Amino acid sequence: MSGNRPEQTVEAVLARLNRPKKVVVTAGMPYANGPLHLGHLAGAHVPADICARYNKMLIGKDNVLFVCGTDDHGSTSEVAAVKAGKPILDFIQDVHTIQKSTLSNYDISLDNYTGTSTPGTIEVHTKNCQDILRKLHKNNLLEKRSSKQWYDTSADRFLPDRYVSGTCPRCEEAGAYSDECDKCGAKYTPDKLLNPVSSISNTKPELRETEHWWLDMWSSTDLLVEWIESKKRFWRKGVYNEVINQVLPCYSFNKEMEAQYKEVKADLPKHKSRFAPGGRMVSQFKSLVDLEAAREIMKAAGIETDLEDGWAYRSITRDVKWGVSLPEEIDPSMNSKTLYVWPDSLIAPISFSEVSLKVKGQDPKEVTQYWNDSESKVYQFLGQDNVFFYVLMQATLWLGSQDNPKQMPQQGDLQLTDVFGSYHLQINGEKMSKSTGNFFTGDQLLEEMNYDSDQVRYYLALLSLSEKSSNFDLEHFKERNKFLAGPLNAALEKPISACIKKFDSVVPEGKLMEKAQKETYKIVQKYTRQMERAEYSTLLYAIENYARQINSLFTQFKTHNHRTHASR
Ligand SMILES: [Zn+2]
Asked: Which of 58, 36, 60 is nearest to 108 (CA)?
C-alpha cells in the first residue's frame, strides 16, 4: 500500500487496539426492592456483560473485574420491607437471591453479585465511604446546612425521600415523595409537599428542623468541564449533552434588564444567553473565572445577577438508621445520621471490586491497580436518569478526596470513569409499568414464555437504547430471532461444517477473494470500534449484513461441493 496509510489487514487493526492495563466494568445497581425486569437487563446488565467479555478477550480475564450488587440502603428497600411485613435484612436477602438467580439465568458473567449491606461487603464499604467523607471534610467540600424535614411522631423518626408520600406541589398528582415527584420530575423543599403521609405509620407527619452535610460540587466546576469536554467524541451524545449543559456555569438576571445587558454584552467573556421561566434571562459561560468576570461587568452596569448553582449542592446525609454510618470523629453531632444512598451507591463499585478480588483469590489491595491507575479503565453502564449522579456527583467525590482537589487526578488518585447511559425500555410501545400489565421480569420470558436467554440477550442488544427509548416489540423480537436461528446461524455453521465434512477439519489452502477480504477487513474494523464504544446495536446490524454476504458467497460458489475448485 502507498504512503503512510495504515496497513489494511485484520492483523493491523488488532495491533492498533487500545489495551488498558486493567478494566473494571460495572452495571447499574438494582434497588433491593423486587425482581429484575427487562429494563434492568437491557440498560445495564446485558451491555455491561458484553463489555466485560470483550475486555476479558482483549487483556485477559485476570485483568478484568465485572462487579455489581444490590443497592440495599435508602428508603426504597426499607419502605418495601415495611410493606412486605419483613425485617429489612431478611427482605433484602430474599430479593438478592432472586436477582442473583435471574442474572445467572441470563449468563451475566459477574465476578461476584453482592450487596451494599451483605456481610463481608458492608465492612469494606463502610471503610471506603468513611475514608472519602473524611477527605471531603478536610478539603472543605462538606457544608453543614439546616433544613426542615418531615418527622413521624408515632414512629419517632424523620421521613426523608420515600418515607413520606403526598400530593406533588407542581402537577398535583398523588404519590409524590418528600422532595421530588416521579410523575412530573419536580424537585422541591419538603415543606412544599401537600397532604404528607408517613410510609411507616400512615399518620400525618410534622415539619422539624435538622442539619445535614451538603456536598459542594460547584468548586469542582472547572475540572468537571475540562474532563467532560475531553470525552465529547467518546461518550454517547445523550450523556455528554446532559452533563455539559448542567455543569457549564450560569447566572440569571431579570429580563427587564435586557436593554442594559445588550449595552455591555460585547464586553462580557464568551457566553450563551436564553430566556428562562419566571421572567429571567440565563447566561452560560465556559468557566467560573469567566462567570465571575462577567458578574463584575454586569454589576457595574447596574444589573444584579443570581448564580444558577442549585444543581451543585446536594445533601448527602440522612436522619435514618438504615445506611452507612458516618465517621465518628469529624462531627459528633452528626453521629445519629447516615450517608445518603446516592453517594453510598457511587462508592459501592470500589467496595465490590475489593470483595470480588478476594472471591477470585487475589489480594484485595490490588483494587488500586484498577481504580487508581491512569492506564486502567472503569466502564459504567446505567440508566440515563442516573447520569447526573454517576458523572457529576461521583467525579466530585473522587476529585474531592484527592490531596489536592483543585487538579485533575494524578497517578495513584481515583481515576474518573467512563459512563454509558441507556434510555428507557418500552414494552409494545408503552412505558413499562405494573399497573398497565406490560411489565416483564427477566425470568418471565424464560420460564413462562420458554425463550432461551441468548435469544433475549440478542434482541436487547439490538435495541438502540444508547440513543433513545426503544421498544421491546414481541413480534419484532420473534422476527429477529428467526434471523438469528436461520441466516446468522447458517453463516457461521455452514463453512465450519463444510470444512469438517469435506476437508478433514482443515481449512483448505487457497487465495481469499478480494471482495471477501475487503468485507472482512471492514467488519473487523467496525467490530473493534463499536465494541470500544459499546454501540452494540449498530454492530449487530452490520454483522447481520456480513452474514448475508457469507451466505450469498457460499451459495454462489458452493465451495463445499467442488473440492478441486476450492483447493486450487
Ligand atoms: Zn409532580
From this structure: 36
The CATH architecture that domain 250-307 belongs to is 2-Layer Sandwich (3.30)
Q: Nearest 5 degrees, angle CA 466-CA 470-CA 473?
A: 140
Task: Give the model confidence (pLDDT) of 88-121 as tens digits.
Answer: 999 999 999 999 999 999 999 999 999 999 999 9
| Cα 192 to middle of ligand 1, angstroms | 12
Rounded distance from Cα 181 to ligand 1 centre (Å): 5
Q: What is the pLDDT of residues 317-340, one digit of tens each?
A: 999 999 999 999 999 999 999 999
Cell of 378: 472503569
Ligand 1 centroid to Cα of residue 141, in Å, is 31
Tell me: pLDDT of 562 over 70.
Answer: no
What is residue 1's predicted lDDT score, i.e. its pLDDT?
43
Distance (angstroms) between ligand 1 centre and the Cα of 174 equals: 8
Distance (Å) of CA 43 to CA 104, 386, 440? 17, 11, 14
Q: Rounded distance, CA 453 to CA 449, Å?
A: 11
Query: What are the grid coordinates assigned to 261, written together?
Result: 445587558
> For the chain, what are the domain ranges?
21-141+338-459, 250-307, 474-557
Q: In this predicted structure, what is the pLDDT of residue 3?
A: 54
Q: For the segment 395-432, what is each residue's pLDDT rounded down to a tens digit?
A: 999 999 999 999 999 999 999 999 999 999 998 888 88
Over pLDDT 70: what percentage of the chain? 97
Q: Cell 495513584 sits at which residue? A: 412
Buried b (16+ CB within 10 A) or exposed e, 95-113: bbeebbebbebbebbbbbb
Ligand 1 centroid from CA 338, angstroms = 28
CA of 172 to the centre of ligand 1 (A): 6
Distance in Å, CA 431 to ligand 1 centroid: 17
149 CA to centre of ligand 1 in angstroms: 19
Category of 60 on φ-ψ map: left (φ > 0), alpha (ψ -120 to 50) or beta = left
Report pTM.
Answer: 0.93
* 41-68 burial code (b ≥16 CB/10 A, e <16): bbbbbbbbbbbbbbbbebbeeebbbbbb
Cα-to-centroid distance, 209 and ligand 1 (Å)? 24
| Ligand 1 centroid distance, CA of 162 (Å) | 14
CA of 165 to the centre of ligand 1 (A): 12
Give the contacts of 51 (CB within 8 A, at least 6 positions apart). Answer: 25, 379, 381, 420, 531, 534
Nearest in space to 462 (alpha carbons), one of 490, 494, 497, 425 = 425
**Which CATH architecture is the domain 21-141+338-459 placed in?**
3-Layer(aba) Sandwich (3.40)
Q: What is the pLDDT of residue 567?
A: 40
